[in-house]
């Protein structure tokens, strides 16, 4: 799952990104409203952590941009300004949650997880697709009650395909989702082919049908 942190306090960004990466999220950063606008228009994020008070403008403008472009990224407003007026304005502009500084990183992670579950999986802690069952908070994947040992990237790949079930997802979109800003630095799509191959093998070894279909010239689709 991919997170964008929009915050100008670099030490806070560093601590947030390090913690969330340990929780198996891909994290990208923007330190200004200008950089953030470029990113939100180019890419999709599972959750955006947004500071209202940015050096070159209000973070509320980012919310307006998301709304203008019909983007459905989850948003948590993070700010030292805990006024009711700003909180209400942000929520009315489409933010999903509000967290005042200072905050505990485990609480931030829990809020991110809750928004992703609500946005993509109807708020459930469990996800089931035929013989595949996933415990979302625990990031545990089972096939016919047999736990499948997936790497972080393989788990993220499975979740991304399930979130886009029955839709063709391009190789570029998957690569960008798994690796964020580093996707363009990777050697073609060799890393993606490797993750796809390993995920398919591990699911099959546990007794799963092959639901990951190659759509030649386009990408992949998770379907029966």
From TrEMBL:
Entries under InterPro entries matching the protein: CheY-like_superfamily, OmpR/PhoB-type_DNA-bd, Sig_transdc_resp-reg_receiver, WalR-like, WH-like_DNA-bd_sf
Location of 4-aspartylphosphate modifications: 51
Domain annotation OmpR/PhoB-type: ranges: 124-224
Pfam families: Response_reg (PF00072), Trans_reg_C (PF00486)
Residues covered by the Response regulatory domain: 2-116
PROSITE patterns recorded: OMPR_PHOB (PS51755), RESPONSE_REGULATORY (PS50110)
Keyword check for Transcription: yes
DNA-binding region: 124-224
Keyword Glycoprotein: no
UniProt KW keywords: DNA-binding, Phosphoprotein, Transcription, Transcription regulation, Two-component regulatory system
PANTHER family: REGULATOR OF RPOS
Protein name, entry field: Response regulator transcription factor
Native source organism of the sequence: Chryseolinea lacunae
């Amino acid at each position: 799952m991919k997170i964008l942190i929009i915050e100008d306090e670099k030490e806070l960004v560093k601590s947030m990104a390090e913690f969330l990466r340990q929780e198996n999220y891909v994290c990208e950063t923007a330190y200004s409203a200008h950089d953030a606008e470029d990113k939100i228009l180019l890419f999709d994020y599972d959750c955006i952590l947004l500071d209202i008070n940015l050096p070159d403008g209000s973070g509320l403008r980012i919310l307006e941009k998301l709304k203008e472009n019909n983007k459905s990224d989850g948003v948590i407003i993070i700010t030292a300004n805990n006024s009711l007026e700003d909180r209400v304005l942000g929520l009315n502009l489409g933010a999903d949650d509000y967290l005042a500084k200072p905050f505990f990183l485990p609480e931030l992670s829990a809020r991110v997880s809750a928004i992703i579950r609500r946005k993509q999986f109807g708020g459930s802690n469990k996800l089931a697709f035929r013989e595949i069952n996933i415990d979302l908070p625990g990031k545990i994947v089972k096939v016919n009650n047999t736990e499948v040992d997936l790497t972080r990237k393989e788990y993220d790949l499975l979740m991304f395909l399930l979130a886009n079930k029955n839709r063709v997802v391009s190789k570029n979109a998957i690569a960008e989702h798994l690796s964020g800003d580093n996707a363009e630095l990777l050697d073609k799509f060799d890393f993606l082919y490797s993750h796809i191959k390993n995920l398919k093998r591990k699911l099959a070894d546990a007794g799963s049908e092959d639901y990951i279909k190659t759509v030649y010239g386009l990408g992949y689709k998770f379907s029966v």
